UniProtKB/TrEMBL annotation:
PROSITE patterns linked: NA_DICARBOXYL_SYMP_1
Protein name listed in UniProt: Cation:dicarboxylase symporter family transporter
PANTHER family: AEROBIC C4-DICARBOXYLATE TRANSPORT PROTEIN, PROTON/GLUTAMATE-ASPARTATE SYMPORTER
A Pfam cross-reference name: SDF
Keywords for this protein: Membrane, Transmembrane, Transmembrane helix
Keyword Nuclease among record annotations: no
Record-annotated membrane-spanning stretches: 24-43, 63-81, 93-115, 140-165, 185-211, 217-242, 300-322, 334-358
InterPro entries according to UniProt: Na-dicarboxylate_symporter, Na-dicarboxylate_symporter_CS
Transmembrane found in the keyword field: yes
Species this chain originates from: Paenarthrobacter aromaticivorans
Length: 448
């Protein structure tokens, strides 16, 4: 488990050690998408024959859905109970985070219904019982991957186990610890699977472009553009208006103050990399240490605005691409599911993709065949998700500090005006404090 001090060191040194691996994967996915599109356009039949590569990767992701959802929901319920015990700040933070995540999910549904991403592609529905026309070697390899476990029963079991462990009190602590270790194992496996993302993306994109031509490329570009615009509007209009109305702070001044953190997040596709810096900067801004200490770590687990927008827009994209658009009832039930399951997206690379697959599998399993397209463009949208999540947590800290009257407004004015700049040397002391402090419930959130 990476300590906050370790992350501080990465941040202080430009994150070089952590950047190399993530950038290799990022570059590999980009190259795979481009190569897959070229193969699909120039050699359509060859592209279609590469579909098992994408299907195999999707099946590996499906294999991890149940353990990811179970471990994270059980631990998440424990985290909610733990955060609520800290009193007014914890309860207020949780209420705000749930409300904003739900609102972000709803925005994703609204935008998705307005632009109808993926419409007209008419991809082949996924049928787990149908054998593809492949040779025996492919059938053998696909058969090695375990079948998926039903999502909704897993979710119900996780919720029941989580509340049961709450009732057990101290007796349940060893079990929660064991589940925490199990979650780390699950996430480690998921990391290993995500290194196959370039292969899966290449096969999926080549097959889709081979079957539909340039329309697939246009549809994916439309989804990415709409997602980036939606995230920008959410930050500037929704969060900006709320910040101005409650705290009297300009969102653009706050973003300028956090400019270095934005660069770090953009280079790593992870808001987790900037966690220690956000804590230090919010304290320097004038928010009291107790408020920052509760709000920021809790927000990293429960305030996933960008991920929420991504989940709903991507779900509608896949449904439209498969030629089976979701009706209003299905969209509402999907929204409710994502409100709960999106807490499982606060994990390593691929947890958001697993959560997306879980939502689709729970509502319409035949839609899983379209997840392959999302694999190809998921990395392109990860920066917007991370930046939106990070901004939402920074805004939440200021808002909650204002609501509980634990913020120095004069200090805020001096800092944002530039008259009292942040001292980078304080990060060294802050990192030392983080080493001895109990680690918050922000486990393994690299590139959500």
């Amino acid at each position: 488990m990476t300590s906050q001090r370790g992350e501080s060191a990465v941040a202080a040194t430009g994150g070089r050690r952590g950047l190399d691996k993530s950038h290799y994967l990022y570059i590999a996915v980009i190259l795979a998408v481009v190569l897959g599109a070229v193969v699909g356009l120039l050699f359509p039949e060859v592209g279609k024959s590469l579909k098992p590569l994408g299907d195999g990767f999707i099946k590996l992701i499906k294999m991890m859905i149940a353990p990811v959802i179970f471990c994270t929901i059980v631990l998440g319920i424990g985290s909610i109970a733990k955060a609520a015990t800290v009193g007014k700040v914890g309860g207020l933070a949780l209420g705000y985070f749930v409300a904003m995540s739900t609102f972000a999910l709803a925005i994703g549904l609204v935008v998705g219904n307005l632009i109808h991403p993926g419409e007209g592609l008419k991809l082949t529905p996924y049928d787990p019982n149908k054998k593809a026309a492949t040779d025996s070697t492919v059938d053998f390899l696909m058969g090695i991957i375990p079948s998926d476990i039903p999502v909704l029963p897993t979710l119900l079991a996780a919720i029941l186990v989580g509340f049961a462990l709450q009732k057990m009190g101290k007796q349940g602590t060893p079990i929660l610890t064991a589940i925490g270790h199990g979650q780390r194992l699950v996430f480690r496996i998921l990391i290993m699977i995500m290194w196959l993302a370039p292969v899966g993306a290449f096969g999926a994109i080549a097959a889709v472009v081979g079957a539909t031509g340039a329309q697939a490329i246009l549809s994916m570009f439309t989804l990415m553009l709409a997602f980036y615009i939606t995230c920008a509007v959410f930050i500037v209009v929704i969060l900006g208006s709320l910040l101005r109305a409650v705290a009297g702070v300009n969102i653009f001044k706050l973003m300028k103050y956090l400019a270095r953190e934005y660069l770090l997040i953009f280079s790593t596709s992870s808001s987790e990399a900037a966690l220690p810096r956000l804590i230090a900067k919010m304290e320097h801004l004038g928010v009291s240490k107790p408020v920052v200490g509760v709000t920021v770590p809790t927000g990293y687990s429960f305030n996933l605005d960008g991920t929420a927008i991504y989940l709903t827009m991507a779900s509608l994209f896949v449904a439209n691409a498969m030629g089976t658009p979701l009706d209003l009832g299905a969209q509402i039930s999907l929204l409710v599911f994502m409100i709960i399951a999106s807490k499982g997206a606060a994990g390593v690379t691929g947890a958001g993709l697993a959560t997306l697959a879980a939502g689709l599998q729970a509502h319409k399993p035949e839609l899983l065949g379209g997840v392959g397209m999302i694999v190809g463009i998921d990395r392109f949208m990860s920066e917007a998700r991370a930046l939106t999540n990070f901004t939402g947590n920074a805004v939440a800290t200021v808002l909650i500090g204002t609501w509980v009257k634990e913020i120095d407004n004069d200090q805020v004015e001096r800092v944002l005006s530039g008259s009292e700049p942040f001292d980078e040397t304080t990060m060294i002391a802050h990192g030392a404090e983080a080493e001895v402090a109990p680690e918050p419930e922000t486990r393994h959130k690299a590139a959500i």
